[in-house]
Amino acid sequence: MDQSHREFLDDLLTTPSPAGFETDVQRVWVEYVSSFADEVRTDEYGNAVAVVDGDDPAVAFTGHADEIGMMVNSVDEDGYVHLSRIGGTDRTVTKGQHVEIHTDDGVVRGVVGQTAIHLRDAEDDEIEDVAEQHVDIGAETETEARELVDVGDPITFDTPVRELQGTRMAARGMDNRVGIWVAAEAARRAAESDTDATVYAVSTVQEELGKQGAKMVGFDLPVDAAVAVDVTHAVDSPDVSDESDQHGEVELGEGPVVARGSSNHPEVVRAVRDAAADADLPVQLQASGRSTGTDADAFYTSQGGIPSLNLGLPNRYMHTPVEVIDTDDLDAAADLLAAFAAESSGRESFAVDI
Q1: pLDDT for 60-100, tens place per residue?
Q2: What is the residue range of 95's domain?
Q3: Does pTM surpass 0.85?
Q4: CATH number of the structural domain spanning residue 324
């Protein structure tokens, strides 16, 4: 991954965007795609669409901009901030973390309280639900705390982007800033190669709250196929490797993951796999017997059915502050989608032949 593209990824990862509060990261994304797209538009909730004009067919590469988080639920008389979830926040990783509360007046820093091990009951070490946890912002009274924060202010972990060995890196919110990076980069690479097909790059909001943004965008997105790029579980770490038969065979650094079954349209699956083979790009396969749990599930039932695919990016430790990815997988995914767009040029339909 070259430096300018890595800077774009870092900008996405360091811009907080809990579901329902995606505006800042969408501005970063829109600025980037505006450098090559023929048209960029946003809607009332902040979904963003960039268009690279071409001929038939029209294909969309999508990701979701939002991340999980927390929010201020209440402030008690001693100035402690009490929490509620935004999306699937994991209660087992929240305690003892540095956090940022994003207010209208700027960031207020705090920590999620964790009782010292010396003071806990050794026989009762259960982890409280997020709603029973609290943030200590250093305030001594309710009045002082309420001068700093409001109920409903979003909260994210204060976790930096970390370089690991080789092409691997860790950060919070890989889910799914890596997906919108791939969507943008695939469209840019398609534009630079003068692909004949029309390419839409899409960054949706509120996927973590039930794929809401994709439902909005899918209502009238004029495309013949959509590829939803999202993270998927890499199962090559010690915590899950013994259960690989249950969770699949996805490994970090072995390429993007083509899901098969459920919402994944067989003709789009075939076209993407053919593009990978022709371009000598690595891909992994994943069984999806039910729903994918991604925006693909919203797109494929829109407008009577948009042929859709979930393209996965291997990710360790999902929904924690230390998600780990391999940037080689991101580059391979962007190259793959650009190749798919090029090879789809002139195609009349992705409909199954019955």
Answers
A1: 999 999 999 999 999 999 999 999 999 999 999 999 999 99
A2: 70-157
A3: yes
A4: 3.40.630.10
